Amino acid sequence: MASENAEKLDLGFNTASDIKPKKEWMNLFLRALSFFATASATLIMALNKQTKTLVVATIGTTPLTITLTAKFLHTPAFIFFVIVNGIVSLYNLVVIAVDTLGPQYDYKGLRLGLTTILDVMAVALAASGDGAATFMAEIGRNGNSHAKWEKICDKFHEYCNRSAVALATSFLGIILLIIVTVMSITKLFKLNRI
């Protein structure tokens, strides 16, 4: 009877070696892809800048011009987007390092549960940054006639196109991180940790 109770107690504290290696590599591969997607989105948006000279008036035959620069720093939502994607990229990099180097230091499976909770928080953080940046990108592309906000994408095509690429890669990173999170949650259910 005592040995049965000990076996039941051990079932709740399975070690990391009970997890199938194929799924661990798939999880690690998807996390690496998520890292590359969010890091790419961070770099694309952080380096996004376009300068354009526009004619504002003509005096006689001489055009009067003004030089304008569109940068991600001009929009707080894009700044938030860069910071959030940088944080999620760094988080993915740390988890990749811990997953490859630290399984022998896992205390009774605590790493998997903690990683799953932090994955959910990373998804929420990245989604909030992407939502804010998507809203501002839509305003930049179409403007808002009710608020009298002019669109800028008709003047800064490359800037808007690079912003769209950054948003798309960030959304891809979020989707991959959601898949990794679902895989981690199903592992927790299989290991009877919840």
TrEMBL record:
Query: Where does the UniProt annotation place the signal sequence?
Result: none
Q: Where are the transmembrane segments?
A: 28-47, 78-98, 110-128, 164-185
State the UniProt keywords alphabetically: Cell membrane, Membrane, Transmembrane, Transmembrane helix
Q: Where on the tree of life does the source sit, at the highest rank? A: Eukaryota
Q: How does it sit in the membrane?
A: Multi-pass membrane protein
Q: Where in the cell is it found?
A: Cell membrane
Which InterPro entries does the protein's record reference?
Answer: CASP/CASPL, CASP_dom, CASPL
Membrane keyword on record: yes
Its main localization is membrane
UniProt feature coiled coil, ranges: none
One GO cellular component term of this record is: plasma membrane
Q: Which residues form the Casparian strip membrane protein domain?
A: 22-176
Cell membrane is among the record's keywords: yes
Give the family, as the similarity comment puts it: Belongs to the Casparian strip membrane proteins (CASP) family.
What PANTHER family does the entry give? CASP-LIKE PROTEIN 1U1
NCBIfam families, from UniProt?
A_tha_TIGR01569
**Quaternary data:** Homodimer and heterodimers.
Name of this protein: CASP-like protein
Q: Which organism is it from?
A: Vigna radiata var. radiata (Mung bean)
Question: Which lineage is the organism of this entry classified under, starting from the top rank?
Answer: Eukaryota, Viridiplantae, Streptophyta, Embryophyta, Tracheophyta
**What's the name of its gene?**
LOC106768012
